[in-house]
Structure formats: C-alpha cells, structure tokens
Amino acid sequence: MSPELLSLLWDSFIETLVMVGLSGGIATLIGIPLGLLLAVTAPGHILARPAFNKILGLVVNAVRSTPFIILMVAIIPFTRLITGTSIGTAAAVVPLAIAAIPFVGRLVEGALREVDGGLIEAAQAMGATPMQIITKVLVPESLPGILNGLTIMLVSLIGFSAMAGAVGGGGLGDLGIRYGYQRFMPEVMGMVVLVLIVFVQLVQSCGDWLSRRLNHR
Amino acid sequence: MENLQTAPMIALNAIAKRYPGPSRDSAAVEALSNIDLTIAEGEIFGIIGKSGAGKSTLIRCINLLERPSAGQVIVAGRDLTALSDAELRAARREIGMIFQHFNLLANRTVFANVALPLELAGIPRAEIAARVDPLLELVGLAAQRDRYPSQLSGGQKQRVGIARALASRPKVLLCDEATSALDPETTRSILALLRDINQRLKLTIVVITHEMQVIKDLCDRVAVLDHGRIVESGRVFEVFTAPTQPMTKTLIADVIGHELPEGLLERLAQPHLQKGGQVVRLFFTGASADAPLMSALTRQFGLDVNILHGQIDEIQGEPFGSLLVLLEGDVANRQGALTWLDQQGIRTEVVNVA
Ligand SMILES: Nc1ncnc2c1ncn2[C@@H]1O[C@H](COP(=O)(O)OP(=O)(O)O)[C@@H](O)[C@H]1O
Ligand SMILES: [Mg+2]
C-alpha cells in the first residue's frame, strides 16, 4: 500500500475518532441526565411524575425508532444552524449525537433500575434527600452498568459514523466507499474493515476493564 | 413497665394502613388496623407475627417509610405525621434502621458504608473518620474497614448495617427481620450485639420477627400481630408462660417444644384413658418450679401420676418449665387435684387425646 494511501487511512481514522469522540461525549453529557430523569420520575420512584415520564418516554422512543439515515436528513436545517454547514465531519457529529442521546438515556435508565430498591429505602431511612439518593446511591451503585451502556453506545457510534461518512462526513466509512468500492481497491476496503475491527475491540476491552474495576458486587 | 411512667419513646396512636387492592375493583388490603402501642425509652420491644401479618408495614410506619392511612406516630415526643419533608428527614436521623437483606452499598467499603449517614448529614470528613472508626470497633469490624460488602459473611454484613444505623447517634433502632437471613449461631451473636448496644447506649430497640426464639432471647416486651391487629401484648415472660390467644400459642410452640409427637402421645395414653385417666399439661414458673408436686398429688388425691414428657427453659433469667402427665384416679379426685394445682399457682391445660 502506498504512503499516500496510508496517510489517507490515518486521516480518515482521526476523522472517525473525532466524530465518535465528540458525538459520544455530547451524548454522555445529555444522555446520563436524561436516563436519570427517565428512572426517577417513573411511577413509584423517588420523584414519581407519571405523566411527565410517559411523555419523555414517548419522545425518546420516537427518536430511537427513526432510522439513522432519515434522522440525518430530517435534521439538516438544525445541523446547519449549529455548525453552519450540512456536510463534513463537524456536520456529522450533530445527527450522531442526537441519535445517541436517547440510546444512552435508555441504557442509563436500565442500569439505574438494576439498583436494589432496598438501598433507596435505606437511604430514605437515613434522611437522604432525593438529590442525595441520586448522587450517593443511584449513580455510584449503577456506575459499572452505566459504563457498560456507554461502551455499547461508542461501539454503535463507530458503526453509525461509517454511515454518516458515506454521505459526506469523512472518516473510515467514507474512505472505504470511495476507494474500496468506487475505485475498486479491495486492499483499501480490507484495511478499513481491519482498522474498524481493532478500534471496536479496543473500545470494548477498555470499557469492560473499567466497568469491572469499578464493580465490587 | 416502671419507666412507662415517663413519656414513651415511641407512641403509635390508632394507626391504620390500607393498600389499594391488586386490581381496580378489588377490595383494599387492610394491612394494619387500630394499632395502639407505646414503647418506653431504653426498652427492647418485639413484634411477632406470621408472614403477611403486617410486621414490616408496622415498623416502616415508625419512621414513616410507610405513611399510615390514619393515626399518629410519635417518636421522642414529636408527631412525625405532622412534619414537613425537611423536618421528617431530620427526624429520621434519630431513628436508625437495619434490614433483613442488610441493604449495604456494594460499591462502598465497610468504612464508607458506615460513613454514608454522616455524609448525608453534611458532617465534615475529619469528624466522620473520628466517628466511624470507634463504631467499627464497637461492632467488631475494625479489621474489615477497607473491604467491600461482597467480601463479608452475612453476620459481618449485618454488623456493618448496625454500625451504619448507629452512626447518626439515633435514639431508636428499628430492626426489620434483622436475623432472618442468618444461621442460628450468627443470629445469636447479632442478638448479643443488639443487647450490648441497648445496655451501653440506652438505645430503644424495636425488633420485628417471625421467630419466637428472637423474642425470647432479646426482648423485654412483645406484641403479637395477626392480620394487622395486635392480638396480645405484654412482658415476654408473661406472654410466654400464660399465652391467651391461639396465634400466640402456635408461635410459642415453635420454641418451647412441649409437643409430644401425636402418635406417640396416643400410644402412651390410650391404654390408660379407658381406666379413668386424663392427660394434663402443667406449667411451672419461678418458685413453683421446685415444689414437690408429684408426690403431693399421689398422697393427697390418691392419683397415679405418669410423667410423659417434660422440659425446662429460661426466659430472661427466669426458669420456666412444662410437664405432660397422665393422671389416673376417679373423676372427683382428678378435679380436686386440678383445683389444688391452680391454687399452688400452677397453670394446667387438659390435653385431648384423639
Ligand atoms: N406496597 C404494598 N402494596 C399493597 N399491599 C401491600 C404492600 N405492602 C404490603 N402489603 C400487604 O400488606 C400485608 C402485610 O404485609 P407486610 O407488612 O409485608 O407483612 P409481614 O412483614 O408481616 O410479612 C400483606 O397482605 C401484604 O400483601
Ligand atoms: Mg416483612
């Protein structure tokens, strides 16, 4: 493989890294509070707001059930508003993040539901406020599960970023389509797939390791 | 009973708790009805009942984890049902609680678990360490300070639970089936620890359990709960030695095994019953335990006394025994003997043999 192709591969990898890193970061920052909100406002939970919970759940489901390709196109005006453009790596981050937020929300909600109700009760018996229950009990106890969820989200984002790349976002997916497919260079396609596999493995292993380290159950 | 003269530590006045029925048009569940209870300062009070009797609901009403549908909950002179959320949270710091399944945070060490109530109360780090370490010493877990709950035995976990409950220096400790997940030996050591704490800290302890043994080993007074009502209550010794309610008798039978297997009883007694005999159970308490009764029955009433089964036990240091005897003689003498025993302060119960 020529040095030019190798440097192209490197640049594409960095673009993927940026897309996944940025959208993953945004999705984490918004998705965790969203997941908390979904969990604690559920009927019977510490801040039960059944009607609000139902509406929030519907919105989350609506975004989650929209196919990514359609979502990407549908929010182009919003993307342009934020990034000033609708193509390129930066523009791909917006739909990626928006698709990932409700995904993280549900995964975090699931992790929080795993926390034994007895722990919440014990904290209430100690005179904990709902906020203290969230910060001292719910989040620390479900941190390993939340980390597992974030790992799943990152791995999915790597896949979705390849799709975003194909419509002008750059990155490994873009490279694979343009060189591997359109110019018929199977060795480029092979390299792209290999790099993606190693990347996913790495993310998964790091996530598993961290989650295991934090879990004392 | 003496210290009931002063204001009680806990007073439940006409507590009721209804849960909505399982479906929309099914009847509400009456989990507690008309519960009146006063518990004195420094007392160990037991509440016993079968599964589903309402024990957990009742103890959870004392710190308002469960809000009663009616009635007042007064702890340390304050009506908890009348407090605002913030006031209630402050009041709960004076009421420690331990649980059947310990409810420890898995991702906190022993030290950090015990520190949790102090963190919640906003106590500075330095002071937290100064308060937690002596507590770990008290419950015998100083060496386990930096372990995680998953590395502890059940008994050790409950000791962490106890230390955590004591951290905020409560006046009352609530124990919800605290030993039900533990083996008998560990149960004994936890009960000993609770007794020790009660003595040292003058802590008022409320214990709920389905095991009479726990009541017998630990409590001063007991209330028997059945279908959400208190059917019998009093000093443990009195309730054990003179139970009046069938539910109480059933629960006591689990501990004081004065039951002879039915088949055996029948086999032993049957041949004599035709010849004018009757099986009687005698209960001895305190001084009556050492009087020479059997020979008196023979001498004064001309009865043949045949001892079938007997045992002696101790409740809070007082001896208590029961004897299953077969009395043979004519009806008048047998009747006279029962009356005489009654005058001697010996409770008797005629046993029907099938
Ligand atoms: N949250 C609840 N909702 C509906 N019914 C309940 C609830 N908690 C308890 N009950 C009912 O109240 C009764 C007493 O329960 P509980 O206090 O747990 O009994 P115990 O602790 O003596 O086994 C039972 O019939 C139980 O089904
Ligand atoms: Mg119970």
Low-confidence stretches of chain A: none
Strand content of chain A: under 5%
The CATH homologous superfamily of chain A is named MetI-like
SSE sequence of chain B, one letter per element: EEEHEEHEHHHEHEHEEHHHEHEEHE
Low-confidence runs of chain B: none
Which protein chains are joined by the largest interface, and how many residues does each one contribute?
A-B, 23 and 28 residues
Q: What class, by secondary structure content of chain A?
A: mainly alpha
- End-to-end Cα distance of chain A, whole Å, is 49 Å
Please report the total strand number of chain A as a whole number.
0
Helix content class of chain B: 25-40%
The number of domains of chain B: 2
Primary descriptors:
heterodimer, A: 217 residues, MetI-like fold, 9 helices, 0% strand, B: 354 residues, alpha/beta, Rossmann fold, Alpha-Beta Plaits, four-stranded antiparallel beta sheet, 14 strands, 36% helix, binds magnesium ion
